Amino acid sequence: MKKTFIPVMLAALMLAASCNKSETEKTEASTEATSKDLAEDQNDKKFDDTNLEDDAQFAVKAAEGGLFEVKLANLAQEKAVSPAVKELADHIAKDHEKANTELKALAAKKNITLPDRLSDKCQKDYDDLAKENGIDFDKKYASLMVQDHKDDIDKFKTESEKGKDADISAWALEKIPTLQHHLEKAESAEKAVKNDIKAAN
Asked: What is the DSSP letter of 115?
């Protein structure tokens, strides 16, 4: 009897240990899965917050860009000699002043603070252009508007497609045709200035 009892007890103890190990592994796996889900949820939340923050950053950059283009357009209306450049500046001033007013109203609803003056870089670009006169001014202004509007179109398209704030995305989408029109006029003005330079030589 004793010989039979000992192996049976050993088997029972081994089985219990095995079950406890299995339960421990299940608990650890469950804890790990829960932690992983929690981390993913937190990452998802951070992702959403980051995108909403990106919308605000887009609004700030768009406001600064609009302010910059209006100031340059006002300068071009004073200094440009080419009719094509003056016409370009007139369109840009009117359209961007309207867009800037709309964006200010939208930003106020979203509690977004927009800049009311140029950044150091934009101010430097403005000051550098203000030093130019005549056909040199026209050439640099037209070239700057071509590049500036290409960049703007890319940024506005990205916001319209990937922005998380529906109102800001819709505003960006609405402005793309105007920006494309400005780009076309800027390219035409750039060609007109080049033709003026060739004719002068």
From this structure: P
pLDDT, tens only, 87-105: 999 999 999 999 999 999 9
Question: Domain ranges in the chain?
Answer: 44-200
- Degrees, nearest 5: CA angle 9-13-14: 115
Identify the H or E element spanning 30: helix 2-79
Taking the complete model, does pTM exceed 0.85, yes or no?
A: no
Closest by CA position to 162, among listed 45, 61, 52: 52
Is domain 44-200 annotated with CATH 1.20.1260.10?
Answer: yes
* H helix or E strand, kind and range, residue 49: helix 2-79
Tally helices (H) and strands (E) across the chain. Answer: 5, 0
Contact 79, 136 (CB under 8 A): no
Orientation angle between helical segments 83-109 and 2-79, nearest 10 degrees = 140
